[in-house]
């Protein structure tokens, strides 16, 4: 399982709780789409994950920016996953970057709005913010591949499925 989180906006801890914390601990890999805010938060999230892929966001300190890139691409379950925070990408720019990277899945944060959608034929995953949802519901995303199908779910910290999508890989 791939667990996707974003926009922690913390100062000294990961702020993970409930099913979001469980999903981070159980995941083969955790993706964070930026805005940890401080290095202490990055370290706290990293300590809970088996493997962490993360990018920096517009609210991250210089120390976080020095440790992370603004774009990450990796292979998972024979899929290419692209990760950006999103503050520097219009929908068109994001679509062009996804094509350039030959991405199957595009992970973006920044808006705090949880969403599963299509972006130019690719799965777009915005986990929202589990810790600072602002006007939206708190959420994280979970992705699985089984029997040639990619499944993505948005879950609230209490485990309720907010949205889901299944598609061929």
Automatic annotation (TrEMBL):
Keyword DNA-binding on entry: no
Keyword Protein transport belongs to the record: no
The protein's Enzyme Commission number: 3.1.4.-
GO molecular function: hydrolase activity; metal ion binding
Cofactor field: a divalent metal cation
Assigned keywords, A-Z: Hydrolase, Metal-binding
Stated family: Belongs to the metallophosphoesterase superfamily. YfcE family.
Protein name in UniProt: Phosphoesterase
């Amino acid at each position: 399982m791939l667990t996707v989180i974003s926009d922690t906006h913390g100062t000294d801890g990961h702020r993970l709780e409930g099913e979001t914390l469980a999903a981070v601990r159980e995941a083969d890999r955790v993706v964070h789409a930026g805005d940890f805010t401080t290095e202490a938060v990055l370290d706290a999230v990293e300590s809970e994950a088996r493997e962490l892929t993360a990018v920096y966001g517009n609210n991250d300190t210089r120390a976080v920016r020095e440790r992370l890139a603004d774009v990450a691409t990796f292979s998972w379950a024979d899929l290419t996953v692209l990760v950006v925070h999103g503050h520097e990408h219009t929908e068109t720019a994001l679509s062009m970057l996804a094509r350039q990277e030959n991405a199957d899945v595009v992970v973006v944060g920044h808006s705090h709005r949880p969403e599963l959608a299509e972006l130019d034929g690719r799965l777009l995953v915005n986990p929202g913010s589990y810790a600072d949802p602002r006007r939206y519901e708190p959420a994280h995303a979970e992705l699985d591949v089984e029997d040639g199908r990619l499944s993505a779910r948005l879950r609230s910290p209490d485990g309720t499925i907010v949205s889901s999508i299944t598609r061929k890989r």
